[in-house]
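pasting for ref. prot 1 ->
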Amino acid sequence: MLHPNQFQVNEAWIAFQLNDVPIETIEDGSFNCVALMDAASCFILGNAFVPIAAQAPSPTEMRRLLKSGWEHRREYPGTLFVPKGQFEASVSSEATRRGISVVPVEEDQLLAFIAEARQGFREFAQKGGRREA
């Protein structure tokens, strides 16, 4: 099982779906939120809202997401973990252009990293997207 203490900051990133259920909007339809996280710190580096019909970030969305991660330390990691079967192809082409190795892993191997972020997002969504003061 992978764990944050196995990594140094910016050594590896994780791309994953943050939401459990689709995010519904009145005007634009339903979306998933794809997040990019640093594996060592579990810091969310960026996110992209992907239409349900697309099922994966577009190349433009993926470039923007990787750029948002790069802006934090002005470098890319050596490794990008993605859950097997989830947007591997769209992530791979953009990541490999930047010298990042994409490593598909079973999603349960990523839970030590992503579970708290998902829980926080779930609680935020249940409040209708409002933060308490």
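and prot 2 ->
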Amino acid sequence: MRRHLPLLTLVLAAFAARPAFAQDNSDTGDLLDGLDDLPDATTPAPEPTKDGSIQGPDDLDSSDEPPDTATEPEPNGPTEDLLGGDQQQPSASGDTADVYRAYAEKVGQYDPDEEVSAWERYLLKFPNTPFRQRIEDRIQALMDKLYSERIDTTPEKSTDALQAEIPFSQALLLENINPRSRLQFGFEWGLPNWINLYGGYEHAFARNFSVQGEIRHRYTGWSVEGGVRWAPVKSLRTQTLVTFLGDVRFNTIPSFLAVRPQIAAGKIFAGIVHAQIQIGTDIELRNPVGVHLVGGANVTVMASDAVALFVEGNMDLKNLTWKAGRPFAFNTATFGIKFFPKSANMKPKALEANVGASLPVGTDYWQYHYGSVMAQANYYFPEK
């Protein structure tokens, strides 16, 4: 009996362990049944991400993490639609909504001209971009803005270059050739007994057209005058004037009418030299008719914004076909200085003051004075 006890012990141990083994076999059967849920060979494996990890279906659909935001104007990879839709892969054009958005945010901080250039480079890089129409509209808006800024150069109001005034210098004894609204007063005193007082007003109905009226003492006597100034050429870009002057005057003592048509031209060189020339006739409608050849020239040099120097010549020849063969003549040469007084209540160069002296030159039969001193003031009304 003792000899068979170990064998009996082994048999009893085997029967005792049999239920546990059955339980383990049951668990193993459950694991085998779960193989049906695993993907078969025909199911595509998920692609690795940029960092090398594998994303499952839940990971691909997850929106917990925001899409990468491009820090450069031309990023690559999946991006988010501008309207907040799903992520997009790069299109055939090479750019995406996020590429366009990131680029727009960056170049939107540029100056208008730089932004135009940046968008033109974008269109060269992505000629088939689906955002071409938006980009072209943006370029057009920027070009319109640039154009308006080039015209609106003053902080107070926009002044079109075609409407801006030319600050052309006024001669002392010659006629005004720059149509502008202004007041003018002056005097001339010559030895031994010559006196000339004058004053008048000119009103500009347009930039290149004005009417004027004045009273002055000419060599033929006191005269009441009126006329027009028309400048078919008045260019701020070329600093050029071409003006037709048409005046009618009534001479008091002796009494007669006269017409005074003239043509004049002026130009500003290098911004500091103002040169002008004018020529015409003064036709006295009396018996006998008197015909004067009148005109002259002026050169003014701006020494500074407030001071200028000028020289001027004035011509008056009468009856060129007189039987003696020589016309009556009284011509003068003038020199002087010009000031532009400044005031807090006036625009720059709204007031112009001239002082000078003249000497007769080339006189024949006439001698109205042996020399004179003169002063003149012009006030230019503000531009409308």
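Residues 11-72, 74-87, 152-159 have pLDDT under 50 and may be disordered.
The longest strand covers residues 221-235.
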